[in-house]
Write a structure and sequence with these properties.
heterodimer, A: mainly alpha, 2 domains, two-stranded antiparallel sheet, B: two-stranded antiparallel ribbon, 4% strand
């Protein structure tokens, strides 16, 4: 429901908007593979878009399946039960309807960057139709499930798909404009309220996404597709909002009120337990995401800022976790002393930092790919040693179980809290703690990035020799990147140990390092929200796609390949990075294949 | 003494296997400066390809006779690996030829994960280790030194095939037109193009040769250890990469020497260093780090070729 508001907001605001950059006129003629049909369609683009929108809505209201998919109590009408009930407008039908409506409205109004917005909406409709159609086909046993059988007709997915495609094609035919730039400046309190509304919407959206489809698994086989379908719809809506230039504008507004934004965002994050996601299960999921987000931010310092590819980074999370486990007073630890949690976090971070400096020391002599291999080797040494229970510190295959909960006085962190009439679920305190931890890590990252040190890192990333020539002492600064990155992971590790109560070497394998790296890259290297977004996506997806658990890693590998192929700069692109990753033919020519690679990555 | 000699023999056998994989690494890195992480998986795919051929397409009467089964399995494994390697180059790496260096590396990681999982999901029973039929004369002979040094015939096969293929490949690269084209492409792709060489074809050829050797290695590995699992690619791939670096990357002879050294380190380290066989892998990584830090050009690499 939250995207309803943002959607309608976008259309009303754009109508009365003063714009600085007038979008460029649409190109007169199309070239390329689809040139013929597109040029033929160009004069009728507006009609095409409206037809596409109407078809989408009609498709949403038709039956989607020739049989009843779900007789169980969950997820009731909210999601997929209404495949055979054309008029229950909830779940993905609601999403398609909204996208279709927005398509029609935008197509008819004089809106800047109209075609680009409509294309985003069309892509959303197409993706939702394809996802649900495919799912019904596969689960329902063949094409009969989405066409006609036994006298039942269910062309919903096909009609919606056609609607989406017509929308996309017509919008493209109409000519895609540049993204407009908005320059509104409102009174400060108006902007504050606006930001507040936006952030609360984001909070609700996050809660909605997190819980959509419910808990995955055998009980609820729909979790995956409901979740993906919502994601697809949201992707369409966001593409449209982004094309309208409004997202960029809101970003600028929040940049103007930096402190306010940060505080409100933090409060919103802390308010998640009060939304629909406030159950013990989702709190656990959210806390795990937080651990990996904090770690990913640490990795982002090493990879994103300093450009030093680290393939064994998860070892630092492991070191932090094992240090914490040994100092927790758990029965299985050989040290057997109990140290207060806050102190444990510091010790874990320091130990991890020391190891970080050790792992980073080869950077003095090794660069690029070779450095990646050195870090990989360190990571493997860590896993092997932990597996063999080195010095009795890691428990080997038995792990270190029964790590006591963090306690404040007599209150244990996994207990539930009641605030007056509101009963908060167990694990909430862990969630709160991890949110604060992530916030602290973000703060560190943000300040470092804009500091002298951060600029030195970026300079090293861009060109190490030039940086050295500018007087940057590259050696210590590179080691510092490893040290700080490892410390952040160590913090997260200490938290991880207490939160999960079991630390086993198995959690820190090479694949985890790759996943973290993928999170940083997927989100956008060198950006703060990027790492958090990437970590969220990569650690929520497996939770949601339990029914595809067998294919999880296969899809993950393919996704990595596809991301590198089509969007190497990640979802949120860093400005410097963007310039660097642009596939400029001139750049490509300069970087002659035989030439020595100068970039340090 | 006999223990020491046995470990030397074991090390050389394992090492020649690693050398065969390392050649693929070293050739690909030499020609497009890409650490092809997925190469270890190509090796694994070859083993499964050979096994599938023996299991599903060849009558058991034929499998029972090693002089039929061995060449069939080797050729099948090599073909499967070659096809996968070429497809990988075509669809994953070629589009990124001019992309920043991080992109192909991450892609290689992705391909590696995907290949491993594809085998796990789609090969029947691949979730656990699968027994591999013996493809050579079983048994061993004993060299009468001390308590006797046992040498398995399969191990001899391993060494002979590996060194033979490596030798043949080196001759190919040194003596033939295509080999010269490969060397030219690895030195300067643009100039090679000006000389009438099609770099794309040469790169495909490189992947094909490397893949075929890895496939052979996979089948030999299966028949040597008598079972295969999907993790074999990653672990041995890293060893092979270490071997390639050790020998000086881009250098076939170096890869072979590096492989043998790795084999010896593993066998002797597992025997004599603290921690025993549980830590033998660790010693390989320690060697890797030391070599990369102190002599990144390896044994045979030219010292002035600084690599970023």
């Amino acid at each position: 429901m939250s995207e309803v508001t943002s959607e309608s907001a976008s259309t009303t605001e754009t109508a009365e908007a003063p714009v600085r950059t007038v979008p460029a006129a649409p190109p007169a003629r199309h070239t390329g593979r689809l040139a013929g049909p597109l040029n033929a369609l160009a004069p009728h683009a507006k009609i095409g878009m409206v037809v596409g929108g109407v078809l989408s809505i009609v498709g949403a209201y038709l039956a989607w399946s020739t049989f009843v998919l779900n007789e169980g109590a969950y997820p009731e009408r909210a999601t997929l039960t209404m495949f055979v009930e054309p008029f229950g407008v909830t779940g993905f039908r609601l999403h398609i309807t909204l996208l279709g409506l927005a398509t029609i409205v935008v197509a008819l109004l004089r809106v800047p960057a109209k075609h680009r917005i409509v294309r985003g909406l069309g892509v959303g409709v197409t993706a939702v139709a394809v996802l649900n159609g495919l799912w019904i086909t596969v689960e329902g046993g063949g094409l009969g499930a989405i066409t006609a059988s036994d006298g039942t007709v269910a062309f919903g997915s096909i009609v919606a798909l056609v609607g989406g495609l017509v929308t996309v094609l017509s919008a493209t035919a109409g000519g895609l404009e540049d993204k407009p730039v908005w320059e509104w400046k409102l009174a400060w309190w108006v902007e504050w309220i606006l930001l507040l509304v936006v952030f609360v919407l984001i909070l609700l959206l996050v809660a909605e996404v997190l819980t959509s489809g419910g808990q995955g698994g055998v009980v609820n086989p729909y979790a995956g597709v409901v979740f993906l379908s919502l994601l697809a719809a949201l992707a369409g809506a966001f593409a449209a909002l982004n094309a309208s230039g409004l997202l960029t504008w809101v970003g600028e507004v929040s940049e103007r009120h930096r402190v306010f934004s940060v505080v409100v965002l933090l409060l919103c994050a802390l308010a998640l337990p009060f939304t629909g996601a406030g159950t013990e299960y989702w709190m656990t999921v959210a806390s795990n995401i937080g651990v990996y987000a904090a770690t990913a931010i640490g990795l982002n310092i090493v990879v994103g800022l300093a450009g030093l590819l680290d393939l064994g980074y998860v070892a630092f999370l492991g070191i932090g976790a094992f240090v914490a486990a040994n100092l927790s007073g758990a029965a299985a630890s050989v040290i057997g002393i109990h140290v207060p949690f806050l102190l444990v976090m510091v010790i874990s971070a320091v130990v991890a930092g020391i190891f970080g400096a050790i792992v980073g020391s080869p950077t003095l002599r090794v660069r690029g790919d070779y450095l990646a291999i050195v870090t990989l080797a360190f990571g493997e040494i860590f896993v092997r040693s932990a597996q063999n229970n080195i010095a009795g510190l890691t428990g080997g295959a038995n792990a270190i179980p029964n790590i006591p909960q963090v306690a404040l006085g007599s209150f244990q962190f996994n207990q539930s809290i009641s605030l007056g009439p509101i009963q908060l679920p167990g694990g909430v305190m862990y969630y709160v703690a991890i949110v604060l931890l992530v916030a602290a890590v973000m703060l560190v990252f943000g300040n470092l990035k804009n500091s002298r040190l951060g600029r030195a890192w970026i300079a090293i990333r861009e060109d190490e020799d030039a940086a050295a020539a500018m007087g940057i002492r590259t050696g210590p600064i590179k080691i510092l990147a490893f040290l700080i990155g490892a410390m952040l992971a160590g913090f997260a590790g200490a938290f991880f140990a207490h939160k999960t109560a079991v630390v086993a070497y198995d959690s820190f394998r090479f694949l985890e390092s790759v996943t973290l790296l993928a999170a940083v890259i997927l989100g956008g290297m060198g950006t703060i929200p990027g790492a958090v977004l990437g970590a969220s996506i990569l650690f929520v997806l497996p939770e949601k796609l339990r029914e595809f658990a067998d294919y999880r890693l296969l899809l993950f590998g393919l996704a990595l390949v596809l991301i590198m192929r089509f969007r190497p700069q990640g979802i949120i692109a860093d400005k410097h990075r963007k310039a660097e990753l642009a596939e400029d033919p001139e750049d490509a020519a300069k970087e002659a294949p035989g030439a020595l690679p100068t970039e340090v990555k | 003494m006999s223990i020491f000699l046995s470990q030397i023999a074991n090390g050389l056998m394992f090492g020649s296997l690693i050398a065969l994989i390392a050649i693929g690494y070293t050739m690909v890195y030499g020609i497009i400066t890409l650490i092809n992480f997925a190469h270890g998986e190509i090796f694994m795919v070859g083993a499964y390809g050979g096994l599938a051929t023996l299991t599903y397409w060849v009558p058991t009467a034929v499998v029972a006779r090693w002089y039929f089964a061995l060449p069939i399995a080797l050729v099948a494994g090599a073909l499967v690996s070659m096809l996968v390697a070429v497809a990988m180059e075509r669809f994953a790496y070629r589009p990124l030829r001019n992309a920043p260096r991080l992109a192909p590396l991450i892609t290689a990681l992705g391909v590696s994960v995907a290949l491993q999982e594809a085998v796990r999901v789609f090969y029947p029973g691949a979730t656990a280790a699968i027994p591999f039929p013996p493809l050579f004369i079983q048994g061993a002979f004993v060299i009468p030194i001390g308590d006797g040094v046992v040498i398995r015939y399969t191990g001899i096969l391993l060494i002979v095939v590996s060194l033979g293929l490596a030798f043949g490949l080196e001759r190919f690269v040194e003596r033939t037109r295509l080999g010269r084209a490969m060397r030219a492409t690895s030195q300067d792709r643009d100039t090679a193009r000006l000389m009438g060489i099609d770099p794309d074809r040469v790169i495909v050829l490189t992947f094909a040769i490397g893949g075929a050797l890895a496939g052979v290695a996979g089948v030999l590995y299966g028949s040597y250890l008598n079972n295969i699992n999907i993790d074999m690619g990653f672990q041995n791939g890293i060893f092979a990469f270490t071997a390639a670096v050790l020998g000086g990357i881009g250098n076939i002879r170096g890869a072979v020497v590096g492989g043998l050294v790795i084999g010896l380190v593993r066998a002797l380290g597992g025997q004599y260093l603290p921690g025993g066989t549980a830590y033998d892998y660790v010693w390989i990584f320690v060697v890797l780090i030391i070599v990369l830090v102190f002599r990144p050009q390896g044994f045979f690499g030219e010292s002035e070729r600084v690599r970023a």
